[in-house]
Specification:
By secondary structure, this protein is an alpha/beta fold. The protein has 21 helices and 19 strands. The longest helix is centred in the C-terminal third of the chain and has 27 residues. The chain binds cobalamin and iron/sulfur cluster.
Length: 564
């Protein structure tokens, strides 16, 4: 198709605003669905430009092509954009195919850290995708929306920097989009457009970014190619305004600061902490950090300001591997960093990667020993992933230089839980065995928790409860049960106790769980203000609170009888 054929001509009459639908691509609960910042930043800039935007967040709702089609039919977007990472790319691409099949005139766009480095391949392999957005998307999406709104032909998007696009039978790329030099000019993320009650029911924290970019250059990571080598910082006062509003207006008590390395610039990190302390914010927060740039003073300040968890990328305990991957740290640095953080009272989580270049049975054993030691000495927790050479990283583009053979090009397998590389020193089977033995350790730990819970240990009971509750909520979300089982007749909806009992009965049947458990869980959701009884044009019944009606499944709006 020719881009822009869906464009509206300037007829001199005032036109309705352009409509853009933004989609997230689903991933499993084990990958921790967090409120997607990408879509909320994109929504905020589009809204500021006068565009009508809806987010359909499939991270925490049931995906089906029919559901997507229902929303397309109801909202009539002219532009649909989807965000994804490598492992979710195949699903994201299939979603855009549904969109294009539904209406070939809708312009389809895809963005995120995967397509940034595979733009041409993406357009070639998924002919129903019109535009791949490269790098930061805020300025690009606004210009794209304007181009779609007014262009007569492909020439409209050809002037938008930072994209690859389909131009007839060929694929063209425009000039690179410069990084946003002043992040403070961006509006605050439009989180109110997300179905936040669902994330809250799952017990997830809210995401915030205080800087973009990474000053390091690890072999397996694309951070600096995505967001720049020079870290760009937001004004701490504005960051804390945002956190304060997340706490006060949205009700999150936990924040995940998702900067690549929060501790890289002490002056910035200290100003964020000082401002949080000054405002006495009642929030718990976590960060990603490096062992070589955390100091006792900074760790103590972070702890005082509410930070409770630091995640360190340890990757390997073998010095040769650490040098090969350009991590720039040694096992001594790791011990020191972990000791500093735990001494300050921070919970430490160490992340390892199995299968890095040069990995052998011996280096895996060294990492295991190191993990065991820091766990015993400092109580540091740890976890393993298997190497997934992601597009945009040196390891992906120069795999053979590192004697690595990439064995799968199926992006869905790039979840870092399965071996997709081989090298002479380590077989795929060994990498997977290592992960399996780690999984066994986790299973042992859970057995232990169950045993202690049975003996009456309250912390263990709480942990088990939390886990069970999360699984219950995930099932509610992914089966779309509140949306479907929650529909009630107006008469029942007007009697809250009966409405709750009816919902519990239907959910019990669909989930095959004891009715008491279901009643108790639903009671908690009602009490916490996460689900509520609603009667409006969309129908009557239970809904997740504070969400746009697109998230529900209300295909045929009901006309409400006047109240008697
Ligand atoms: C928070 C985070 C997570 C969270 C949750 C992600 C979420 N749902 O928000 C958790 C911890 C669960 C997580 C998990 C994983 N993550 Co992660 N994560 C991040 C992190 C630290 C921040 C993401 C973020 O919010 N960034 C800020 C926003 C504003 O940036 P953005 O999402 O890139 O969006 C911008 C552009 O990409 C673009 N854009 C994005 N989408 C679209 C769509 C359209 C239409 C347009 C126009 C533009 C556009 O515009 C946006 C605004 O500028 C990033 C690193 C980073 N600094 O981004 C890694 C990162 C995204 N994660 C990564 C990876 C590998 C994973 C895992 C696979 C890890 C694993 N299992 O080993 C899983 C996959 C889970 C999944 N399917 O998402 C990689 C992805 C690389 C890749 N090629 O896919 C990253 C980039 C880290 C890295 N440097 O390697 N992650
Ligand atoms: S692994 Fe961490 S420190 Fe290394 S380049 Fe990526 S974000 Fe930066």
């Amino acid at each position: 198709m020719v881009l822009g054929s869906n464009a509206r001509r300037n007829t001199g009459k005032r036109q309705a605003p352009l409509r853009v639908l933004l989609l997230s691509s689903p991933h499993p609960l084990e990958e921790n669905p967090l409120p997607p910042l990408s879509l909320t930043y994109l929504t905020a800039v589009l809204e500021a430009a006068g565009v009508e935007v809806e987010i359909l967040d499939f991270l925490v709702s049931r995906y089906s092509p029919a559901r997507l089609r229902n929303v397309l039919a109801a909202f009539h977007p002219q532009l649909v954009g989807v965000t994804c990472v490598t492992m979710t790319y195949p699903r994201a691409a299939r979603m855009l195919r549904v969109v294009k099949t539904f209406d070939p005139n809708i312009i389809t766009a895809i963005g995120g850290p995967h397509v940034t480095f595979t733009a041409e391949e993406t357009l070639r392999r998924a002919p129903w995708t019109d535009i791949a957005v490269i790098g930061e998307g805020e300025d690009t999406i606004v210009e794209l929306a304007r181009a779609v709104d007014s262009a007569r032909d492909a020439g409209g998007v050809a002037g938008v920097a930072g994209i690859s696009f389909r131009n007839g039978d060929t694929i063209a790329a425009t000039a690179p989009r410069p990084l946003i030099s002043d992040l403070d000019r961006l509006p605050l993320p439009a989180r109110h457009r997300l179905p936040l009650a669902r994330y809250q029911a799952l017990g997830m924290p809210c995401t915030v970014v205080t800087s973009r970019g990474c000053a390091y250059d690890c072999l397996f990571c694309s951070a600096n190619r995505m967001f720049g080598h020079r870290v760009r910082f937001r004004e701490p006062g504005l960051v804390v305004d945002e956190i304060e509003s997340i706490r006060r207006d949205l009700g999150f008590r936990r924040i995940n600061i998702v900067d690549d390395t929060f501790t890289v610039n002490h002056h910035h990190a200290e100003r964020v902490c000082d401002e949080m302390l000054r405002r006495k914010l009642d929030v718990d927060w976590s960060v990603y950090a490096r062992v070589d740039n955390i100091t006792p003073d900074l760790a103590t300040l972070m702890k005082r300001a509410g930070c409770n968890t630091v995640l360190f990328g340890i990757e390997s305990a073998d010095e040769t591997i650490l040098r090969t991957i350009r991590k720039g740290i040694t096992p001594d640095d790791m011990r020191r960093g972990i000791a500093i953080a735990t001494k300050a009272g921070l919970r430490v989580y160490c992340s390892f990667i199995i299968g890095l270049p040069g990995e052998t049975r011996r280096t895996i054993a060294a990492s295991n020993v190191f993990a065991g030691e820091v766990n015993a000495d400092f109580g540091a927790e740890y976890g393993y992933h298997i190497l997934a050479p992601l597009p945009g990283t040196d390891l992906y583009h120069r795999a053979t230089d590192y004697s690595l053979r990439i064995t799968s090009r199926n992006w869905a397998c790039y979840d870092a839980n399965q071996a997709i590389t081989e090298q002479a020193t380590i077989s795929r089977a060994l990498a997977e065995e290592t992960l399996a033995s780690y999984d066994e350790l986790i299973e042992h730990a859970w057995k232990d928790i169950r045993r202690r819970a049975a003996a009456g240990d309250t912390a263990s009971i709480d942990r088990l409860e939390g886990n069970r509750r999360q699984a219950f909520i995930w099932s509610l979300l992914k089966k779309g049960l509140i949306e479907t089982a929650g529909r009630l007749s107006l008469a029942v909806a007007r009697r809250p106790a009966e409405a709750e009992a009816t919902l519990a009965e239907l959910v019990t049947r669909r989930m095959k769980l004891p009715e008491d458990t279901v009643r108790q869980e639903l009671r908690m959701l009602v009490a916490a203000g996460l689900i509520q009884l609603v009667a409006d044009k969309g129908g009557t019944g239970w809904r997740w609170c504070r969400e746009r009606r697109w998230h529900g499944e209300y295909p045929s709006p009901v006309r409400l009888a006047p109240r008697t």
